[in-house]
Write a structure and sequence with these properties.
single chain, alpha+beta, nine-stranded antiparallel beta sheet, 11 helices, 12% helix
Length: 763
């Protein structure tokens, strides 16, 4: 009976489902029939068009390819000068090298050979080219923003800005046991410092990047690293912070393999080699040794680094090549990046108000104190990313790079890498370091059985020369790790040029004449520490002034005293190392005229020092007493000089002038000024580059020079500087370095143009 009812209800259920009035019929487990598909309805008619909206605002102007082009922009570059065809010159060489060629010409000039005078010195001029004397040729090896490998992507390593110091390591140099004049002269590795970026205007609300900063900004835009117009102000916050990071990437140093073409003599970059960049970001890490930082440093993401490890290296000016194969890169002028730790000075004069609102940290009556945190500089501290700002005491060191090691391989990173990696030599202290050099025997090696001795110069007006003597002796059987460990502990000395005329920093105080090899000045190396038992040079004058310091007898006591010489006290050696310029002034060390370079001459055993110039008034009187701010006469040293320092017994030394700068509106053939980087050749010859000659010699460009020191030329060319090569428009000639056989001089053209027209290098 149920079967008959089901049959009668089925048509009704199907009807209700099709009408949408029920979902399913009740019944057993059999599935219901699927609903039929309905037909689509008819489309409605289109509505009428609406009214046009108002015009939108005009978009900003696009950037043309011409505005991004840097193909003719002046770029810092590494240059190689090589000895070419000299068959038609009036010399015959026993040794085929640049020094042998130049010295042969000088010898003929000294003996009256007019033909030789057609070759040397190079005539002075102001051009947009690199010029050399006949017989030499040159080529550009690599320039700023060139890729160091075959990878030209933005993140790949590129050659940095404003190249300075260079150090060449010929292939297989270690077979000779020293990187000085050993190994291949046709292939090897070269280190190049990158100091800064020229230009004052960085991206802000009111200014667009200018000069070299504009070059970098245009390159970054083309690499899609920023979207803001590089030629306009008002960048986005994100682009400004990105720019700061890439600014840091242009500093530090490049480590590259270069090879010489045997046919042409030209040098080229080996892009297949494992070339590396080390920079001012936290991509590069270094451990600070022999010095206690204020607090744990952080990387650029704000993450704490291991204790004593800091992010990056900056302000890399000149430097030195260690006898064990590392590079000492000197961090100069870092006060322009994160702020000055020695803020008690206006120029060379102490200007430290004693009122409670003063920000000076060296007031007398208290112990010195430091504002460690980063200030609002116009380089790395003006962005909104606080992680990019670093403490001031992380920088201003002689930084030892272990070239070839990964950039983040800091010294002592792991037990398996003892003696490997990068570090900052805190035992040498903080200063505006320009460079460094090591005392060596005449075989260009460290001296067996003697302490390791290292010299360095604080490049500022009134700056001093320093010497570090290791506590333990070096022995010839030491490996690299043991030798490097010698720099962790030792004694720091500062040079007091007692006989130097305080009025000019050039002549002898007793005669107002230049010191000569036959009539030398005298001086003393003075230990600078809180435990030093040396006598302060200004002690007698301080006590005679009745300043109630009769109980003080040593440098250590004077440094710790809170009122000695009108400067606060240095309670610890770490405080002394934090502010070497202030500490040296407190005890009356004679000021000098910007010691930019010191080089040890292994052949004659003399330390050569380039004093560039100083036209400011000294901060101390002749007795080493602080003078009131804005008082005293300018030293008036416009042209600079090169001095020789000869060490004696018991920390004594003598000094004399090797070459004195000179200049005029119509400069003579041998006029030159502002000596900077020094270079000692394998035979002990002294060479130098200049920085500032154009402003003192009728706009003649900076150049490379050789000094004649042959006693046989005493009545002719002795003491003259012979111009051998000249740089392009308004550039500085930096970092000269010989290949082992001295057939090549490498040097850097820094900031070509520098605010004037230039398209160098040609390309």
């Amino acid at each position: 009976m149920m079967t008959n009812i089901r049959k009668k209800l089925m048509p009704l259920c199907i009807f209700l489902i099709s009408a949408g009035l029920c979902v399913a019929c009740s019944g057993d487990d059999d599935a219901g029939l699927p609903p039929p598909t309905g037909r689509d309805g008819v489309d409605g008619e289109d509505g009428s068009d609406g009214e046009d909206g108002s015009d939108g605002e005009d978009g900003s102007d696009g950037i043309t390819s011409a505005e991004l082009d840097i193909s003719s922009a002046p770029l810092s570059a590494l240059v190689a000068i090589t000895l070419g065809d000299i068959r038609d010159t009036p010399v015959v060489l026993q040794e085929r090298s640049i020094p042998a060629y130049v010295k042969a010409l000088v010898d003929r000039i000294a003996n009256g050979d007019e033909a030789a005078g057609l070759y040397l010195p190079l005539p002075g001029a102001s051009t947009d080219t690199v010029r050399t004397i006949p017989g030499l040729q040159h080529n550009v090896v690599v320039k700023w923003l060139d890729p160091l490998t075959w990878d030209n992507s933005a993140e790949a390593p590129h050659f940095g800005s404003n190249a300075d110091f260079t150090a060449f390591f010929g292939d297989n140099w270690d077979i000779g046991g020293t990187p000085y004049f050993s190994g291949s002269s046709t292939a090897g590795w070269i280190w190049v410092n990158h100091e800064y970026i020229s230009g004052s205007a960085l991206p802000s609300a009111d200014t667009a990047p200018d000069r070299q900063h504009n070059i970098l900004a245009r390159w970054m835009f083309k690499q899609s690293l920023i979207t803001s117009n590089p030629n306009q102000p008002q960048w986005s916050e994100a682009d400004t912070n990105t720019y700061i990071n890439w600014h840091k990437r242009q500093l530090g140093g490049s480590w590259m393999r270069i090879v010489q073409d045997p046919g042409t003599g030209a040098w080229d970059l080996d892009r297949a080699a494992d070339n590396k960049r080390y920079d001012a970001t936290s991509n590069t890490l270094a451990r600070v040794t022999g010095f206690t930082l204020n607090r744990v440093a952080q990387d650029d993401a704000g993450v704490d680094l291991p204790e004593g490890v800091v992010a990056g290296t900056a302000g890399n000016c000149s430097g030195g090549k260690s006898p064990w194969g590392t590079v000492i890169s000197a961090e100069e002028n870092v006060q322009g990046y994160y702020g000055d730790l020695e803020n008690g000075w206006s120029g060379t004069q102490f200007d430290c108000p004693t009122d409670e609102d003063s920000t000076c940290t060296f007031q007398p009556g208290t112990n010195v104190s430091f504002t460690y945190e980063s200030g609002q500089s116009q380089s790395f501290s003006y962005g909104t990313d606080d992680n990019q700002r670093k403490d001031k005491d992380n920088y201003g060191f002689l930084t030892e790079i272990d070239p070839g090691q990964p950039a983040d391989e800091y010294y002592g990173k792991g037990e398996a890498t003892a003696g490997v990696g990068h570090r900052k030599l805190g035992a040498f202290g903080r200063a505006r370091w320009e460079n460094s050099t090591f005392k060596m025997g005449n075989d260009w090696k460290l001296i067996d059985g003697q302490p390791l001795i290292m010299f360095a110069a604080n490049d500022r007006r009134g700056g001093r020369v320093y010497k570090f003597v290791s506590s333990a002796n070096y022995t010839a059987d030491m490996d690299k790790a043991a030798t490097r460990a010698l720099l962790d502990e030792g004694t720091l000395y500062v040079a007091h040029f007692a006989d130097l005329n305080n009025a000019d920093g050039i002549t002898l105080a007793s005669t107002s004449e230049l010191a000569t090899a036959l009539n030398r000045g005298t001086g003393e190396w003075i230990e600078i520490s809180t435990t030093s038992e040396a006598v302060p040079p200004n002690l007698e004058a301080i006590q005679a002034a009745g300043d109630d310091h009769n109980m003080i007898t040593t440098v250590g006591e004077a440094l710790q005293d809170q009122t000695y010489n009108g400067i606060g006290g240095f309670p610890t050696d770490n405080d002394v190392l934090s502010a070497l310029y202030t500490a040296a002034s407190k005890i009356g060390i004679r000021e000098t005229n910007r010691p930019e370079d010191v080089e040890w001459n292994a052949i004659d055993g003399i330390l050569y020092i380039a004093f560039t110039n100083n036209t400011q008034a000294p901060g101390l009187d002749p007795d080493g007493i602080l003078v009131p701010p804005n008082s005293g006469e300018s030293r008036g040293d416009e042209f600079g000089q090169i001095m020789a320092l000869v060490e004696g017994e018991s920390n004594s030394f003598t000094f004399y002038t090797v070459w004195k700068g000179q200049g005029s509106d119509t400069p003579g053939l041998y006029d030159a000024a502002a000596p900077d980087n020094l270079l000692i050749d394998r035979n002990g010859g002294v060479w130098f580059g200049t920085d500032g000659n154009p402003g003192r010699n009728a706009d003649m460009t900076d150049a490379l020079y050789y000094i004649d020191q042959d006693p046989a030329h005493a009545d002719t060319t002795f003491g003259r500087a012979f111009r051998v090569a000249s740089g392009p428009s308004n550039s500085e000639a930096t970092g000269p370095e010989f290949s082992p056989d001295m057939s090549t001089i490498f040097f850097n053209v820094q900031h070509p143009g520098d605010g004037r027209f230039s398209t160098w290098p040609p390309r």
